[in-house]
Structure to design on (387 residues):
């Protein structure tokens, strides 16, 4: 559980499937403003900075994104917890996959034919189940190979080795870490329902660092990629991780946000109504993209003349930390409208310089501009690689 707890808990934040601390109650499914425990339906309502539910009240300061602590309002001091399981659609897919796999095993057992012990053992181990119950990748890699090289072919980290040898709570820790990161992304996506973000996204893909959800091991990162692809349709190739910290960065496009809006229409609309900045739909016609002319820097000696890529690279590398926010944003916007090519980018080493600047700058505005620019360059690389 997070040491600092949560500031607020909203009804819409609880949407999904949770596991009740009382195992006899099993899963809690939250849809809209209703929590279902088996056949029992309980209404959820806002109560100040938290949520109330028939004799219980969520405690933000004792909760985190993967675990909600509920306290009885009777004064008895009794508490229960909900542990995050996942989005409802995602769990339905996993359940269908496991059911298909177990049905395959059961069908094989009815034939009553003697089979080698190794073959029986293979059937009982379900790795990476897909929707039809088969193993991803055709089942060509043995379990030993996967344990040696990790699920995505990457070298095993210290955390991976601890998981394999019982040094940590393995799948539970992996799932909670990945769920925390996915929930941070989901919460952030709702905050993008603003005019300002409409303009930013119209200029190109936007990258979001999930600073509060580092994923240390390869298994946590693979689980996060899986959840993001199944839950939000995010291409695994759009997710990067910091080599040391494991902090994930997710790059989104106009289509990503459109799909997200279609999946959570009620919550999206609710956020727009309660948000401090209205979205474009509330104000009528869609705001047109920012024109290159409007992004031109103001006149001044430091920004006159054509863009010098070598000078830009040197400035971001050597003076990035001392640049003012206005100067940094102006330079980044000049690079945004510059007719960049892969060859020019490689020759100037600007990609590395701007990326390092984004990690070190204390200006949130400059960091957003820089991350959006790096995301555009990454898409440019991918397009050239595919052509």
């Amino acid at each position: 559980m997070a040491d600092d707890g949560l500031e607020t808990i909203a009804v819409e934040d609880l949407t999904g499937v949770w596991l009740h601390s009382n195992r006899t109650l099993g899963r809690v499914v939250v849809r809209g403003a209703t929590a279902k425990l088996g056949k029992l339906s309980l209404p959820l309502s806002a109560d100040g900075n938290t949520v109330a539910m028939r004799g219980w009240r969520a405690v933000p300061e004792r909760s985190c994104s993967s675990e909600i602590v509920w306290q009885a309002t009777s004064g008895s001091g009794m508490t229960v917890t909900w542990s995050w399981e996942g989005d409802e659609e995602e769990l339905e897919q996993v359940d269908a996959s496991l059911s298909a796999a177990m049905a395959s095993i059961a069908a094989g057992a009815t034939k009553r034919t003697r089979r080698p012990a190794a073959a029986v053992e293979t059937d009982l181990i379900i790795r990476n189940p897909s929707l039809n119950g088969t193993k991803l990748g055709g089942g060509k890699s043995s379990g030993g190979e996967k344990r040696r090289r990790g699920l995505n072919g990457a070298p095993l980290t210290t955390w991976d080795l601890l998981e394999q040898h019982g040094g940590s709570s393995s799948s539970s820790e992996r799932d909670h870490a990945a769920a925390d990161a996915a929930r941070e992304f989901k919460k952030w996506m709702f905050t993008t329902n603003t005019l300002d973000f409409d303009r930013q996204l119209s200029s190109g893909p936007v990258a979001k660092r999930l600073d509060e959800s580092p994923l240390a091991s390869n298994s946590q990162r693979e689980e996060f990629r899986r959840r993001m692809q199944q839950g939000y349709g995010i291409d695994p190739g759009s997710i990067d991780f910091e080599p040391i910290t494991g902090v994930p960065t997710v790059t989104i496009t106009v289509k990503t946000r459109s799909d997200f809006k279609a999946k959570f229409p009620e919550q999206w609309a609710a956020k727009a109504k309660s948000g401090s900045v209205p979205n474009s739909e509330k104000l009528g016609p869609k705001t047109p993209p920012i024109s290159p002319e409007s992004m031109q820097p103001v006149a001044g000696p430091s920004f006159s003349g054509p863009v010098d890529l070598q000078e830009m690279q040197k400035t971001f590398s050597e003076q990035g930390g001392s640049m003012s926010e206005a100067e940094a944003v102006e330079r980044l916007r000049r690079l945004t409208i510059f007719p960049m090519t892969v060859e020019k980018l490689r020759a100037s080493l600007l990609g590395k310089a701007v990326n390092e600047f984004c990690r070190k700058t204390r200006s949130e505005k400059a960091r957003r501009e820089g991350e959006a620019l790096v995301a555009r360059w990454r898409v440019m690389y991918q397009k050239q690689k595919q052509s």
Observations:
- The chain has four domains: 11-85, 90-140, 170-283, 292-298+307-386.
- Residues 292-298+307-386 form a domain with the Transcription Elongation Factor S-II; Chain A fold (CATH 1.20.930.10).
